[in-house]
């Protein structure tokens, strides 16, 4: 392997090697004769499987929301910034969905915070089901959620937004849930993270106000 070749050239090499669900940290160093000539190499290994698992757990906890299992606010913004840079180079579009759960305070006040937490988890489950594996669903904060849709045009973005709303409406679990959703698409609605978030946020609250007016009329 390449590491052995480097050791034979006089370079000590440290690397990780995975096999049968274990992770080993290996070190290969030159083996020299009494005269200093390299006559081979010698290796030593350390099983670091548990350490890697702990590191991955810490990394997951730092980037995900504990209640819903979705990406957290910071991870979403980091991913959005990366996607803006990627799309500047590739000239491809992508979309941002911002979602706000309707009447979460009413659920908390009427049924308690456990029911409110379950409502947030139900929305997260629907988002995971309706998004593709390449997309990133996140809890944006409180009762707000977000989705980064990779390589998506306006039609696809609104289709997925509609699927999330339809799936919530089809659920038989009580209480019934609804969300207001705003959509923005790169580059039509902006070329920066701030412009895209502000565009989706404006549409979200337009829809939220329209829903509130409809409820008050009833």
Describe this structure as you would to a colleague.
This protein has 218 residues and is α+β, with helices and mostly antiparallel strands. It has two domains: 53 residues, PAS domain (Beta-Lactamase), CATH 3.30.450; 153 residues, Reverse transcriptase/Diguanylate cyclase domain (Alpha-Beta Plaits, 2-Layer Sandwich), CATH 3.30.70.270. Helices cover 50% and strands 26% of the residues. It contains seven helices and seven strands; from the N terminus they run H-E-E-E-H-H-E-H-H-E-E-H-E-H. The chain has a four-stranded antiparallel β-sheet with strand order 5-6-4-7, with helices on both faces. It has a three-stranded antiparallel β-sheet with strand order 1-2-3. A hairpin with a 5-residue loop joins strand 2 and strand 3. Helix 4 packs across helix 5. It is elongated and about 90 Å long. The model has no long low-confidence stretch (mean pLDDT 92).
Briefly summarize what is shown.
The chain is of the alpha+beta class and 218 residues long. It has helices at residues 2-8, 49-63, 73-90, 104-111, 113-130, 154-170, 193-217; strands at residues 13-19, 22-32, 38-47, 94-101, 136-141, 144-149, 179-186.
């Amino acid at each position: 392997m390449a590491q052995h070749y480097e050791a034979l050239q006089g370079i000590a090499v440290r690397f990780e090697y995975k096999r049968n669900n274990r992770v080993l940290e290996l070190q290969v160093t030159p083996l020299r004769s009494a005269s200093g000539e390299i006559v081979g190499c010698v290796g030593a290994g350390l099983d670091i499987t548990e350490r890697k698992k702990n590191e991955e757990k810490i990394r997951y906890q730092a980037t995900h929301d504990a209640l819903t299992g979705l990406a957290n606010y910071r991870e979403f913004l980091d991913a959005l910034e990366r996607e803006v840079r990627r799309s500047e180079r590739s000239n491809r579009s992508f979309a941002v969905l911002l979602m706000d759960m309707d009447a979460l305070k009413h659920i908390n006040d009427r049924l308690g915070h456990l029911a409110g937490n379950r409502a947030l988890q139900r929305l997260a489950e629907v988002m995971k089901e309706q998004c593709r594996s390449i997309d990133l669903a996140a809890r944006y904060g409180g009762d707000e959620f977000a989705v980064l849709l990779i390589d998506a045009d306006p039609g696809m973005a609104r289709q997925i937004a509609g699927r999330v709303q339809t799936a919530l409406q089809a659920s038989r679990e009580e209480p019934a849930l609804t969300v207001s959703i705003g959509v923005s698409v790169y580059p039509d609605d902006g070329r920066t993270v701030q412009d895209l978030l502000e565009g989706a946020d404006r549409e979200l609250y337009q829809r939220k106000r329209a829903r509130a007016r409809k409820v008050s009329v009833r």
